[in-house]
Design a protein that fits this description.
Number of strands: 0
Shape: globular
Structural class: mainly alpha
Distance between the termini: 44 Å
Radius of gyration: 27 Å
Strand content: under 5%
Length: about 280
């Protein structure tokens, strides 16, 4: 529509840049924008490997900060989650050191684990981590009570570490490294990283870092276990230090090593003008 003098009508001023002026955020090679991932999931509700892996990453407790990086502390369970993993073993050690009574020490450790479950009920938070903790403490207490050896309270952790190591080594051998399944969805890569052999190798390296952390626990703690009660204090101490703190460190190193390489902008070729 034109006005009487033939000039175009003026458009009302708008606040802020127009959609054409907003440039999209740079995306690294192999990385899929988060909105595109959500569009694919909305268009195809059928369960896929990507959806299963995304659910696994979520259930594994990995969290992303607002800046897109991994929230290492929250992924380790936060302060409360770390306390849930540390305190039952610490209570057991202190009680057994003071009383030298295995039964009392085991009951105290179970009570500490049960207390966290009650706290989560009061807070109306998910009970998965607390219930897993109390089940683990319960099995450890049963083993120690059955054998009558206080050091057997920690033997379940050895088999758990071995199980994780085997699972991660198998994932590397199958070219489905677990670090890629976990970190890929935090970075909105989905499973696109599997199409790039370089990304597969990088995620395999990140998985090896986590395997090294788990193996280091065994190398240090198993010899202390075979010392019996003489090595109990050292075993319990290293179990605490090499638990959540070492896991957080290993997770952070694996995250840094697997960062996508930013795309390098190609230099524009000078246009040749005809004579």
């Amino acid at each position: 529509m034109t006005v009487a003098n033939g000039s175009e009508p003026q458009k009302p001023p708008t606040s802020g840049p127009s959609p054409e002026d907003v440039s999209p955020e740079p995306v690294s090679p192999g990385q899929v924008p988060a909105e595109r991932v959500s569009e694919r999931q909305a268009q195809d509700p059928t369960p896929t490997i990507a959806g299963v892996a995304a659910g696994y990453a979520e259930k594994a407790g990995l969290h992303r900060r607002s800046d897109g990086n991994i929230d290492v502390l929250k992924s380790a369970g936060g302060v409360q989650g770390i306390a849930e993993s540390i305190l039952p073993g610490l209570v057991f050690l202190v009680c057994f050191t003071v009383t030298r009574e295995l039964g009392i020490s085991l009951v105290a450790a179970l009570a500490a684990a049960a207390a966290f479950t009650v706290v989560r009920l009061v807070q109306r938070r998910p009970l998965t981590q607390a219930l897993a903790g109390i089940v683990g403490v319960g099995i450890s207490a049963w083993l120690a009570n059955t054998t009558g050896k206080a050091e057997d309270f920690y033997v379940l952790g050895f088999f758990t570490n071995i199980g994780y190591i085997l699972a991660m080594v198998i994932s590397i051998a199958l070219k489905w490294p677990i670090a890629g399944l976990l970190f890929g969805f935090i970075r909105s890569e989905g499973l696109e990283w599997r199409k790039d052999p370089r990304r597969v190798k990088v995620y395999a390296l990140g998985t090896w870092v986590i395997v090294t952390v788990l193996a280091l626990r065994l190398v240090v703690q198993v010899p202390l276990y075979f010392l019996g009660e003489e090595g109990l204090a050292a075993l319990a101490t290293t179990r605490l230090l090499m638990g959540a703190p070492l896991y957080i460190l290993g997770l952070w190193v694996a995250w840094l090593l697997t960062r996508p390489v930013p795309a390098t902008p190609q230099p524009s070729k000078p246009s040749s003008s005809g004579a």
